[in-house]
Every structure is written in C-alpha cells, then in structure tokens.
Amino acid sequence: MAEAIETSKTRRVYLTLRDRISSGELTPGTRLPSEPDLAGLHDVSRVTIRRALAELEREGLISRRPGAGTFITARMIKRPIVADLSNALAHLVEMGRSTDVRLLQFGYVEANPDVAEALKLEAGERVQRSVRVRIIDGEPFSYLVTHVPQRIGTTYTEAELGAQPLLTLIERSGVKVDRATQTITAALAGPDVAEALGVDIGAPLLALNRVVFDVKRRGIEHLTAFYRPDRYSFQMDLVRIDSGGDRLWSPVERLRMGVGLNGADAND
Asked: What is the pTM (predicted TM-score) of this model?
C-alpha cells in the first residue's frame, strides 16, 4: 500500500512539472528549485522528487548538472504525425445545448517560444493568456488555454471573455478571421486539468491545438484544449472517389462532436 501511495505521489509531481514545461510556463534554461525546496512545495519526500525528476530527465525535458542544479532543456513533448482534417473541420454545426464558461485565469505574459512561433509574433511581443473551462449541463467537458497578441487582447475585458466567445471578441476588434490550422491528438490529464475536468490525474484526454490567422496571414489566436473523451468525440463521413485511376476515401465536409456537443468550441 505504501509503495502504491508513493508511486501516485511521484506521478502527480511528474505530471505537474511536465505540464508546466509543455505549456511554456517553465521555459528552456529555467533552473528548477532544489530537491528539498521541491519536496516542500509539493509536500512529498525527496525520494519522490528524485523519481519524478528522473522520469523528466529520461524524456529529455530536464538536465541535472552536478554542482549547478536542474534546468529545463526542452519546450514541448515530441509531436506526433498529424492527419490533415482541414476539410472535415470546415463547417461545424451549431450547438444543441446550453453551455457556460468558467474563467480561471486572465492576464498578460511573455509568449513562450512555441506560441511566439505559431503566432509569428515580433520579438518581445506580449500575449493575453486565459484559461477557461467550458461546461455543459452543469458538467465540465473542456479545458481551454488561449493566447492572443496583446494588441488584440486589450480590446476586451476579463468580464467580457467570461461571457462571450473569444472569436466574437476578436472579430469585434476589427480583425477579419480567415483560416486556421488544427491538430488533434491524445494526452494525459495533469493535476490542474484533472481537477478542472473532474477526472483522475493521468486520465486519457483528447487534445486539440488550433492556430487562427487573419486575412494578412497573421496569427491572432493560439488555442490548446483538453476534452473529456466520454463527453467529446469526433465523427467524420467519408465517400469513395476515383483519383487518377485509384479508389480513395475522401472526407465529407461535416464534423459532429459526440454526445450532443455539436461544435461547442467552434468560437473559442
């Protein structure tokens, strides 16, 4: 029993630090607190901290330098192969149920390298960062982290973001939304996400990354979203076509979000 509890604590610390690295909160070159300080921060033993750090080091996310400390060495987990779903994602149907949004964080920060690159930001350009949980029928189903260039983010307030879809606020500022790139993959729930979505730490989730561009091909929104798979699923219709003598499957331009969640985050 004691061993199982220790393993659970190790995984909790590991996922907490991993989430902070992958989100850009801990950037490459950042020095982590000492093992005793980390143990105190997470209320665990130094043995637990060592095990968690060993796992992060094995994944190449940190580097432990004798006499110097432990440093962040990677900014993201390796990306998987991405399937092109752009046609299927072109038209999202309207939502069939009422939803609500709980705004957890709102502020202006320096963009981490991944967000800066995705949005094609100028050097030193800040972003408005928000964390929200979308709720349907009183139950949370998505955890949304968005970054918007500061020049756009200053056109709406924290209260407005808590009450209106983000893209609506962006378009209200005069920005003409043109296109987006989107990837869908799988992820494990870190402590913050797990608590917000009401799932266990380490539970499997659907993960979505979207970058939205204006007509001048400037990045205007970076979205990272996590979804409970029991409340959110994708369905794609395919048709068989002839293409240069080959018989291929081609997507029909329709996407349905499972369990009646019909496009809940289309405007997030």
From this structure: 0.66
